[in-house]
Amino acid sequence: MRSFTHFDAYSIEDTCTALGQYKGRAQLKAGGSDLLSILKGDFLPDYPEVIINIKTIPGLDYIKEDGDFLRIGALVRLIEMVRSPLLSHKYSVLVKAAHTVASPQIRNVATLGGNLCQDTRCWYYRYPRSMGGPLQCLRKGSGSCLAVKGDNRYHAIMGGKKCFAVCPSDMAVALACLDGRLIIAGPRGERNVAVADFFYPLGNDLAEDEMITEIEIPARRNPAQQNFLKFTLRKPIDFAIVSVASVISIEKGVCTDARIVLGAVAPFPVRVRAAEELLIGKPVSEEIVMSAADEALAGSKPLSKNAYKVQIAKTLVKRAVMGSTD
Amino acid sequence: MTRQEKKFSGSALEGKHHINLTVNGQLYELAIGTGAGKVNPSDTLSFTLRETLGLTGTKVSCDSGACGGCTVIMDGRAVLSCMLLSIECDEKEITTIEGLKNPKTGELDPLQQSFIDHTAFQCGFCTPGMIMSSKALLNDNPSPTEEEVKEALSGNFCRCISHYQIVRAVMAVSGKGK
Amino acid sequence: MKSVAENYRYIGKAMPRMDGQEIVTGKTAFLDDLKFHNLLIGKVLRSPHPHAMIKRIDTSKAEQLKGVKAIITHETAPDWKGGLPPIRLLDRKVRYVGDVVALIAAETERIADQAKRLINVEYEILPAVFDDYEAMKPGAIQLYDDLPGNILPLGSDEISGATWATEIVTGDVEKGFAEADAIIEGGFAYDNIPNPISIESPAAVALWEEPDKVTLWVSNHKVWNNKRLLSPIFGDKVQIRIIGGACGGSYGAKAMSWQVQCYAAALSKATGQPVKVIFSKEEQLGCFILRPATRLNAKVGMQKDGTVTAVAGSWLVGTGYYSRTTQIQIAVGCGEAMIAVRCNNWNVKPSIVCTNRNASGIVRGFGGQELKCALIPLLSLAMEKLSLDPFEVLKKNFVKPGDGYFWRNAAWYNYRGIDYSRAMDEGAKTFGWKEKWKGWLKPTAVEGTKHIGVGVGVHGNADVGEDMSEAYVRIDNDGRVVVISGLTEHGTGQRSNVVKAVAEVLQLPLEFISITPGDTLVTPVEWGPAGSRGTYAILGAAISAADDAKKKLFQLAAPMLGTDNFEDLETADGIIWLKSDPEKRIDWKKVLKFRTVIGHGRFDEDFSLSNCMMSFVELQVDTETGKIDLLRVVNATDVGKVIDPHGLEGQLNGCLGSAGIDSAIFEETILDPTTGCILNTNLIDYKWRTSAELPVIENVVLETPIDSHRFHALGIGEISTSPGPSAVLMAASNAIGQWLHEYPVTPERVLKTLGKSMEKKQGGSL
């Protein structure tokens, strides 16, 4: 790893001020699992001058219900989410999603905020310098998306725009399904943005002097039926090829509420409202769920090598809604 | 934290000048900087353990968080030492493979002995990481089930496929840690 | 495991590995754990282009960097060459993405990396070719000036001067096809070029002492072979010493470490200091040994009783940008095909083609696994046509006593081993083959979208007796024994087994015996572990050496015991006595007093024995997602006599890893056809099996004495990866009811075959 200056941060204010002063030359670091792999791969045009450790900011590692909201501090580690009785009871989609992330050792250090801010896994984008890289592409400022003509088996089947990398965050999918919003702090004050709107094809919504401090989720009265299914070639370690988060309320066999979000199919989590509407008010039968699954993928536009993701996504939607665990 | 808008004052952040690292019960005070015996801000914990402290029992293989070879226990949890910056390990308590032996009697940890008894290794390069992941599990849950052992070791790469013998070795001491 | 009752003190008993204590305490010194005075770190600058000429290379800025000690480019590199065609260590032309452009030695890794970024290279970019068929076409891009069609010659090996088999041609294939009840013509490929990826990366430390002495500390399992490879590269004048230590996995590949070793040697020569070069995981995945790619287009004839009457066709082997061992792998692969398929009429013509990708080379399975993964599916099509049970056909066709085969040196060998049918039957029984096999393209069971299928594969290798081994056994005057052997440990436990074998011969407690490090300066020649030769060849030499030492000891002891009949002498635990009068006895220490005795043992190659492993697999295909879950593997073998049950189990369980069974499920090296970059050079995108998804493995091991050495044992470890991949293809095809033709069987391929992923490309507008 190349050298950098390292600071510990003790307050959100100081952190954002420093980010502003360094004008993009500073990087925040929490668990660091993604950041260190980026720095070691050295594939980005700019290498940070400064690393700001935010784990030292006190008080950002809570999971609590606060009136109408569930609030999760950005520095909560995934292992704590996996083990949280509160989440297990009422927000189990978060627990299920957190449990699928990476490996036990990574979950012991990786934070929720870091999971949301991690960079894409596109293998062209991340092609390492040591192997004759990096490769230039639009996401890095110029050129075109190399995946379109190349090997795009893991790339977007919808929502891509000039860049077809997908959002790698499992937590984003589960949070979007619970209507989560990100609390973002910056020198211009605090703002919040829906999780699903945080991600763009070429990155995310954070300005260079902002940081996520909290994730806010409307408190749930009843847990309903929450599910998170992640399709990978292997259970641990892998990033999703497709994932689906769902929260389905069923009363007397009839679906009264449905939220379905697709992951790893687009540069952002995709809430499939048309499919949800198709379910609401109807009995949860295999037939109805199948048509909802078809509807969920109706807008998909696969690339040359990833049409199989459409079929897998449909299957996952069906299984998630039907309450299957695999 | 309050929800209202705030004005930020511009106080600069400060870097560290030294760190205190407790490794296998021994305290090391290491200066931040460049040169022998010092910790560069971009040094990983695995580098510091191996190169600065000479504790080469911790192995580095992929050096990017995907193989578990460099697993150590930090504050009770299995972590990847190649993915931690040493400068951020100030005041942390770390156990490496060298720290498992009983310091007084020199006796092996029962888990280490079980690895020998079951020949739970072939080339042996992944073994320190495997043992540290298993140890962290056993510390947390002295009677894991076979499934829990497999899950706890799922981030540890072994190409020889010694997993079956490893799981047996860990299960042989499961339930005996109480 | 079943055991014939034999009264061994050590052989066959489960015992702690000699190096176990060090391994579990982290004390085992792998290469990167060794300490050197004044050590420099060597790094490699690699090409971004798959094919280019270096027009200009400017290292001046990098050289000015404090701490940089040497930079070597094609202009300044020693003229060292290796492989076929002989490639320069650093060439003006680069031939794959990742090819070496410059070497840097610096005081620290950080400085070396910084220097890499300061080197300015101007390239003349050339068009590149990545596909093996494309590379052979007229007018294709040429990688070398003197290699028309990118086709490498077969049969020759400039280093050893040996001749290798270049084809399987015997009998009359036309006659064979005329006798067939079914003829199948088709093609199968096993061309996903998986990487065995040892956990310890390829590495070397070199110290060059002018003018012509070089010492290399290596991370591999074949120090003498290493010396033999480097000697013609450095030239006869150079005195080479190779010091081996613990090797963190190889699976064959690290035997081909000549480049990383030469990088270290060249940098040490340039600096006069020891230099360490360790490949990163990215380099290991993108610039180190891959499996050769196989494409078989052939015609097979089969009779109703499963007799194979003819095999004819072409076997195309893609080797990447050059070959070091592919010729030999083809030679062995051909022999292994004959061992697994008893057929009188063959006409299989291999060829090797170069393309602009990283090189293929030695990987466990060595040519035979590659060919088998295409040949067994082709034979399966014939079996399907004749409604034959593949287990019965594979059993019937595996070499039997009295049969023979052409081996790698193109010579014919009469097989004098055992009939493995009994092991196969036992395996089938344990697996429940009869109950599970429902016929071709029929699932064993269906539950909703989960289809269960079974498959079987087989492999055997006569390299169990390849090449030479030597050992000395030295009995010291303190009654202790030192085995002097050039063997290093790479995971099989073979060093412990050598000690065990010597202890058995000399009837000595294990703790009285030690073994030297694998150092060419002090040990006799030892080819090292390869092709499962350890049990027969390496132990064979150690046994002979122990016998020889014992004989010499008896010669000294006999007069002291007042006899000249050596047959009457017996020894155990350091005491010699007369069988006829056990009261007459003498301590070794008294016999030796102020001397040592040294016994010498040698093993010479013997290709008349073959090992055998049959693998049965049961897997589940989710027909809605295409995902394959491996449920159960049963491996069946007969090893003659188990030496070390734990070590054997480890080797057999190794069927999954190191580009074995999983190369049919998710392991593959993904070469981007547009850039020539290998896209998955990390351990997230390169898929490997984790402990969370272990299938049940059962190993059925028989012990029918084999005519090898006195313990009647034969090695098996190398081939455990080989029967599985084709068995997976068979099982997955049976599960879904349609033939799958490609490795690995990804969800995409399953869904396509099932007609469930038919959408055309619609997206991707730029």
What keyword list fits this structure?
heterotrimer; B: 178 residues; alpha+beta; Ubiquitin-like (UB roll); DNA polymerase, domain 1; 2 domains; five-stranded mixed sheet; 13% strand; disordered N terminus; C: 766 residues; Aldehyde Oxidoreductase, domain 3; Aldehyde Oxidoreductase, domain 4; 3 domains; seven-stranded mixed sheet; six-stranded mixed sheet; 19 helices; 24% strand; globular
Chain-wise SSE layout:
The complex is a heterotrimer of chains A (326), B (178) and C (766).
Chain A (H helix, E strand, L loop, with lengths): L4 E4 L3 H11 L3 E4 L3 H9 L8 E4 L9 E4 L2 E5 L4 H5 L2 H6 L1 H9 L3 H4 L4 H6 L52 H8 L3 E6 L2 E6 H4 E2 L2 E2 L6 E8 L6 E7 L10 E10 L2 E10 L6 E2 L1 H7 L6 H11 L11 H14 L5
Parallel strand pairs in A: 1-3, 2-3
Antiparallel strand pairs in A: 4-5, 5-10, 6-7, 6-10, 8-9, 11-12, 12-13, 13-14
Helix pairs in contact in A: 5-8, 10-11, 11-12
Chain B lengths: L17 E6 L2 E6 L13 H8 L18 E4 L2 E4 L11 E4 L14 H8 L9 H14 L5 H7 L10 H11 L5
Parallel strand pairs in B: 1-5
Antiparallel strand pairs in B: 1-2, 3-4, 3-5
Chain C lengths: L19 H6 L14 E7 L5 E7 L1 H5 L3 E6 L7 E2 L4 E2 L4 E2 L5 E7 L2 H10 L1 E6 L6 H5 L14 E2 L15 E3 L2 H6 L3 E9 L12 E7 L3 E6 L4 H12 L4 E6 L13 H14 L3 E4 L2 H7 L5 E10 L5 E13 L5 H15 L5 E9 L13 H18 L4 H8 L6 E3 L5 E3 L6 H11 L1 H4 L8 E3 L2 E10 L9 E7 L5 E4 L9 H13 L6 E3 L18 H27 L8 E4 L2 E4 L6 E3 H5 L4 E7 L9 E10 L5 E11 L6 H9 L42 E7 L21 H13 L10 H7 L13
Parallel strand pairs in C: 1-15, 13-14, 17-18, 24-25, 31-32
Antiparallel strand pairs in C: 1-7, 2-6, 2-8, 3-7, 4-5, 9-18, 10-18, 11-16, 12-13, 12-15, 16-17, 19-20, 21-22, 22-30, 23-24, 23-29, 26-27, 27-28, 30-31
Helix pairs in contact in C: 9-10, 10-18, 14-15
Structural features, described:
The complex is a heterotrimer of chains A (326), B (178) and C (766). The model of chain A has no long low-confidence stretch (mean pLDDT 97). In chain A, α11 packs across α12. In chain A, the strands form 4 sheets. Chain A has a 5-stranded antiparallel sheet. Chain A has a 4-stranded antiparallel sheet with strand order 11-12-13-14, sandwiched between helices. Chain A has a 3-stranded parallel sheet with strand order 1-3-2, with helices on one face. Helices cover 29% and strands 23% of the residues of chain A. In chain A, β2, α2 and β3 form a beta-alpha-beta unit. Chain A is an alpha+beta fold and 326 residues long. Chain A has a domain of 97 residues: CO dehydrogenase flavoprotein, C-terminal domain (Enolase-like, domain 1, 2-Layer Sandwich). Chain B has 178 residues and is α+β, with helices and mostly antiparallel strands. Chain B folds into 2 domains: 79 residues, Beta-grasp domain (Ubiquitin-like (UB roll)); 64 residues, DNA polymerase, domain 1 (Orthogonal Bundle). Chain B contains 5 helices and 5 strands, in the order ββαβββαααα. In chain B, strands 2-1-5-3-4 form a 5-stranded mixed sheet, with helices on one face. The termini of chain B are far apart. Chain C has 766 residues and is α+β, with helices and mostly antiparallel strands. Chain C has 3 domains: 177 residues, Aldehyde oxidase/xanthine dehydrogenase, a/b hammerhead (Aldehyde Oxidoreductase, domain 3, Alpha-Beta Complex), CATH 3.90.1170; 318 residues, Aldehyde oxidase/xanthine dehydrogenase, molybdopterin binding domain (Aldehyde Oxidoreductase, domain 4), CATH 3.30.365; 137 residues, Aldehyde oxidase/xanthine dehydrogenase, molybdopterin binding domain (Aldehyde Oxidoreductase, domain 4, 2-Layer Sandwich). Chain C is 25% helix and 24% strand. In chain C, β31, α17 and β32 form a beta-alpha-beta unit. Chain C is globular, with a radius of gyration of 27 Å. Chains B and C meet through α2, α3, α4 and α5 of B and α1 and α17 of C.
